Write the structure tokens for this entry.
Amino acid sequence: MSLASTPSEPMLTGRRIVLGLTGSIAAYKSATLARELRRRGADVRVVMTPGATEFITPLTMATLVDHPVHSDFTEDQDAGVWTNHVELGIWGDLILVAPATANTLAAMVHGGCDNLLQAVLLSARCPVAVAPAMDLDMFTHDATQSNLATLKERGVDVIEPGTGPLASGLVGKGRMAEPEDIADHLEQWFAKDLPYAGKRVVITAGPTHEPLDAVRFLGNRSSGKMGFALAEALAAQGAEVTLVAGPVSLATPDRVHSRVDVSTAMDMNDAVQKIWPRMDLGIACAAVSDFRPAVTSEDKWHRGDVPPAVELIENPDILAGMGATKQHHQRLVGFALESDDGVASAEGKLARKNLDAIVLNSLRDAGAGFGHDTNKVSVLFQGGKSVSFELKSKYEVAQDLVELWRTTLNP
Ligand code: CTP
């Protein structure tokens, strides 16, 4: 059986964002912003000030967010239908005003209520973010700076404008931040509430290649898929993930903080030793070669030069090194691929390498281990507890493990 790996959900899935547009030329960028927020999974409702409707049509915005746009206190004056601004403020997880003009920022400071957007802002119970857009002199003016300082003090998230050519012809600070950057900023903002927010995790993944000569190596068939799935699942839960990857042909998953590519076990060990002291959680998923050739030929061996025997020397045990220097707050998880049921051997590694948990997969189980898109694992903990999972896609296994570690290891 081959289950496809499930990609993680877009980071803003289920987030409800009220997008407020005010009267700035940067309103044209709000179309791209709305589309970007939707692409990342957010449900977006748009409120436009009368000024904003002169720069971009409500029809454009409504089409992009798939909801009617609100720009007036009354929906249908004759029928006496009004726009419930209180409801919008309660509906949103966040109100984002982008672009935010100097005028709207001032109104926010003074509690102005001249248009529907200002009414929504005044009655909002959710957090508010603003992406200012204005001319250089307006932005640097004491009044604007003091308004921004006041808004920040009140907890409003100010997404700083960029520097560059402005609509006035001047060059300087005042351009609304780019839609992609605003969306990234919001992802990070929402990530604060995720279970692994603020946690630093290092994951080793893939095989190592131990060179014999200029072109040949000792290696193994690890694809790196399990480690990469874990990196993706942990990053989706808000962790700051550093992926130390052996030679694999896999793209860095979304939201992974950094990736260090290595080839040999010695390189992987060096990289991990530098990173590990700053981490909260270590996950050793790599299939590290336990041995390397004692001598590596700089040239390619030709048929006549191949030595009759290759002497092997032991590589450092990276995971055991992490276990030996583990600090009180750090948690450490190893993997064990065994050819029998492997429980006794995995328990031995759990103790010997000073781990908090070890994930065991057996080559006996069809669909588990190297080369598959699926895996079937059991997790053994210090103290004897164990949890077993069914055969699943590697991404689903990763999600199960991430949730299990959160509740049991409390990293
Ligand atoms: N590991 C490591 N460095 C090594 C070898 C292994 O970090 N040089 C890690 C792997 O990433 C895995 C765990 O140790 O998390 C188990 O690997 P395994 O090779 O099974 O451990 P060994 O102690 O070498 O056990 P065995 O006696 O089965 O070879």
Residues 204, 265, 284, 286, 288, 290, 315, 317-319, 334-336, 349 surround cytidine-5'-triphosphate (CB under 6 Å). DSSP finds 13 helices and 23 strands in the chain. The domain at 200-298+310-408 is CATH 3.40.50.10300 (Rossmann fold).
